[in-house]
Specification:
This protein has eight helices and 14 strands. With 333 residues, it is α+β, with helices and mostly antiparallel strands. The protein has a single domain, classed as B-lactam Antibiotic, Isopenicillin N Synthase, Chain (Jelly Rolls), CATH 2.60.120.330. The strands form three sheets. It has an eight-stranded mixed β-sheet. Strands 6-11-8-9 form a four-stranded antiparallel β-sheet, with no helix packed on it. Bound molecules: 2-oxoglutaric acid and fe (ii) ion (FE2). 2-oxoglutaric acid binds next to strand 5, strand 7, strand 11 and strand 12. The site of fe (ii) ion has 3 residues, from loops.
């Protein structure tokens, strides 16, 4: 399906990490990436270096978890989502409808999730013993994105003409060392299939996941072939973000919007629940790249004219405190 979201070929920056900023490919790619992030806040990445088998396996392993009996999954329910983000979120625990409330009748999202979070994701003990391959699949997925993520961060620094083009690298040291405190999160989403009588009741505005912004710096998102993801343009129109084979979606989070003074918007997005798709399970996986702990929430460049930040500017609050308040606000209980 054709999409108005730019498709970027990462092979242009596939050279070695050191010195990549000198190559022609880098300059061209940085411009395309920056323009894409400025206009919609979403781009597709192709030739991203994550082998399709890594994606297949992480989707399969997380599905193995979600298909376990409910009482088994509930053993892994997040104990306290504000202090510990690792583990299972049943559908009834979350409502990401912070911006506009197109709530389902039930008031929560039609999905379950598993989060592998911060340094917790390093320990086998924090994964379900019933799915022995899950930790490795999550590790492989994360590790295969780290180098690309760092190159993209260098591109952002160049595009925004930062005094220190490595600013983003320095605020994301946890990419290389998860022992550095951060909220980096790999979230696997499982949108359950509905039965026939539930499908009959679906209304036009039903959502699998309500409208929200992501909270970190960037999100790498892999979706299966079902579809339903949409992004909100600045004029308020919704555009589809259909699955494109072998691509990964990149979108800006609130922290990138803040640091870029509104030039890279944390575009609102949602997943629609269409009658035609509702009987099919949908899966997606996000790598939510978050700043290291004590980063401040202050723009680095002159703010974009008419910018209305979704993220309150707070020079005293660090991203950590902000994140904790946000998580607390998204809980359904
Ligand atoms: O499932 C999707 O395609 C989107 C998921 C998402 O936006 C999220 O988990 O924040
Ligand atoms: Fe999201």
């Amino acid at each position: 399906m054709k999409s108005e979201i730019p498709i970027l070929d990462c092979s242009k920056i596939s050279g070695s990490y050191d010195g990549v900023s000198d190559s022609d490919g880098f300059e061209e790619f940085a411009k395309q990436l920056g323009d894409g992030m400025s206009s919609i806040g979403f781009v597709y990445l192709t030739n991203h270096g994550v082998h399709h088998s890594i994606i297949d396996v992480v989707l399969r392993e997380s599905r193995n978890f979600f298909e376990l009996p409910k009482d088994v999954k509930m053993k892994y329910r997040k104990p306290d989502a504000v202090e510990n983000f690792n583990g299972y979120t049943p559908a009834e625990d979350e409502q990401l409808n912070e911006t506009v409330g197109t709530t389902n009748k039930s008031g929560h999202d039609y999905k379950e999730a598993w989060d592998s979070w911060g340094k917790e994701m390093l320990s086998e003990a924090n994964y379900p013993s019933e799915v022995p391959g899950m930790k490795k699949s999550v590790d492989d997925f994360r590790l295969s994105l780290v180098t690309l993520c760092k190159k993209l961060f260098l591109c952002f620094g160049h595009y925004l003409k930062l005094e220190d083009p490595e600013f983003f690298l320095q605020r994301h040291r946890a990419l290389d060392d998860l022992n550095i405190k951060s909220h980096n999160d790999i979230r696997t989403n499982y949108y359950m299939a509905l039965n026939s009588s539930e499908v009959d009741e679906i209304t036009e505005d039903a959502m699998r996941l309500n409208e929200h912004n992501d909270w970190g710096t960037v999100t790498f998102l892999v979706q299966d072939s079902v579809g339903g993801l949409e992004a909100k343009k600045t004029n308020g129109d919704w555009i589809p973000v259909p699955p494109i084979e072998n691509s990964i979606v990149l979108n800006a989070g609130l922290m990138l919007e803040m640091w870029s003074g509104g030039h890279f918007p944390a575009t609102g997005h949602r997943v629609r629940l269409l009658k035609s798709q509702a009987k099919t399970v949908r899966q997606s996986i996000g790598f939510f790249v978050q700043p290291d702990g004590e980063s401040n929430c202050i723009p680095l460049v002159p703010e974009k004219k008419d910018w209305h930040p979704a993220y309150p500017k707070v020079d005293k609050e660090t991203h950590f405190e902000y994140f904790r308040n946000r998580v607390a606000g998204s809980r359904a209980y």
